[in-house]
Each structure stands twice: as C-alpha cells, then as structure tokens.
Design a protein that fits this description.
Layout: H1 19-28, E1 32-36, H2 40-49, E2 53-56, H3 60-63, H4 75-88, E3 93-97, H5 107-119, E4 125-127, H6 135-143, E5 148-153, H7 159-162, H8 172-188, E6 192-196, H9 200-209, E7 214-217, E8 225-228, H10 230-233, H11 251-268, H12 282-297
Parallel strand pairs: 1-2, 1-8, 2-3, 3-4, 4-5, 5-6, 6-7
Helix pairs in contact: 2-4, 5-6, 6-8, 8-9
The chain binds 3-methyl-2-oxobutanoic acid (KIV).
Amino acid sequence: MKEARNVSTPPAERKKVTITDIQAKKEKGRLITMLTAYDYPTGMLVDRAGIDIILVGDSLAMVVLGYENTVSVTMDEMLHHCRAVARGAKSCLLVGDMPFMSYQVSIPQAVENAGRFLKEGNMDVVKLEGGQERAEVVRAIVDAGIPVQGHIGLTPQTISKLGGFRVQGKSVDAGLNLLDDALALEEAGCFSIVLEGIPDRLAALITERLRIPTVGIGAGKGCDGQVLVLHDMLGMFDRFTPKFVKKYADFFGAGTTAIRQYMDEILEGSFPGPEHVYTMTDEVYAALRSAVAEREAK
Ligand code: KIV
C-alpha cells in the first residue's frame, strides 16, 4: 500500500526533482504528484505548492488557447508556453508534451522536436502519446539522451480514431493490448507512463507489472501517482468536466465576484481610494497651478 507524502508545507528551497527521484518513489511505495501548468504564474503556483512534476500539457490548446481539441496546437506554441513555465518553476521536474504530428512523421523529426523541448523550451523530459506503435520513436529519443514519459489509454490526440473521449481498455482484448502497450514503452526506455481514462483495476494490474511508475488521470487509485489538468481542478475551465476531475477551487466564481466588485467600486467612486494614489506637496501643487494659470493667460 502506497503512503501519501505529507506535502502540506513544502520547504521554501526545494531541491530540483529528477527522474531518479520519481522512480525512487515507486520503489519506496510513495505517491507521485503531477499537475499541468501553462505559463509563468501557474508554473510558479504549482512549483511553490510542492508538486513533484509539472506537465506543460498540450491540453493548453483547449484550456488556455480556446481551441476545440488538442490537435491544432503547434510546436512553436508549446515551446512558447514551456519557456514561460520554466521561468516560474525552478524545482518541479518539467515535462513538455509533444504535440500532434511532431513525432509521428519520422524518427529523425521526432528526435529533433524532442530536443527542441529541452534546448528551446527548457524542459527536463518529453511526453508523447501511443503504445507499441511508438516504441521505436521512444527508443530513438531516449537514445538521444532525452527522458520520455509515455501516455496510453484515452489519448486525446487520437480521439477521432478512438471515436471520442471514451474510456479505453474495457474488454479483455483491449485490456491486454494496453498492458502490452505499457510493457513495450517500458522496454523502449520510458521512465514513466501516464494512464488516462481506463478502468481502475486495469490501471492497477498494469502498474503492478511495471518497474517504472505510472501516473493516472481517470485511472483510479492503483497508479503510482495522479495528474490533473490545473484549469479543471481550480475551476478555471467550464466547457466540460470529465467524471474523474475533482474541483478543489472555483477560480472562475472567485474571479467573477472580484471583477464585479471592481466595476461597482469604479462606478460608485470608491476605487481608487487614498491608499492607491500618489501625492504631491501643497507647495508644489500651488506653484504648478500658478504656472498653468500664467501659461493659459498668454
Ligand atoms: O495535455 C495534458 O494535459 C495531458 C494530461 C491530461 C495527462 O496529457
């Protein structure tokens, strides 16, 4: 049974989290915490809270850029957000999510794009979606010295092929296939695998059979850790909320209340108050008024 680490008061100065730390957690039966972030303030927020891993997820396409799905986001858009997160988050392990078509076309292109996440995006590792069919690409990226996190199950970049956002691995054949995907990714050199949208007992069965840690999203408690999309758990995205999301805050609600109060205070004249203004001495003001009067008299 894994124990939850006490993370309520993370040290002010944390040591940088490495993939070795993440793998050691599985060995010691300690749970891994992971959350997405997309810019400087969210990177700083998540880092300061003491989370182990930040994923600059391609979910930013939907929750930050307002696209319909994750397919449209480009390498350049991802790298722009990665750099901002890296400026704010100094301790978390930083995972850059490879966007659709950045690793499917050819192995050399996949290795080059993975390298850009480290060189231009200041990420520590990359994540990509897919199982057995991606093992060769994973091996090539790992051989180039870039750690890879796999991602199987409900893989949003291929929702057209999966027939929509549907739970995966519900039959014996589909479950076996996902287990084979996980084993192939481990064999190819992934340091960890995200399991998304699969039955909890399948996720536990896969997790028990891997040496590398799994991080679940909609995959139950039997994984080695959990990840959520920051905007979902903070209540900053309301287009839809999957069953597996727990809302820990209502940022939209709190933000709307604050903005309405600001509007009201402008309209009723109570903002800005005396504490928000810069002043000048009476002498300077009197001199200024006479200078203006003199100028206007000419
Ligand atoms: O892009 C993302 O946020 C993800 C998580 C859902 C794991 O891939």
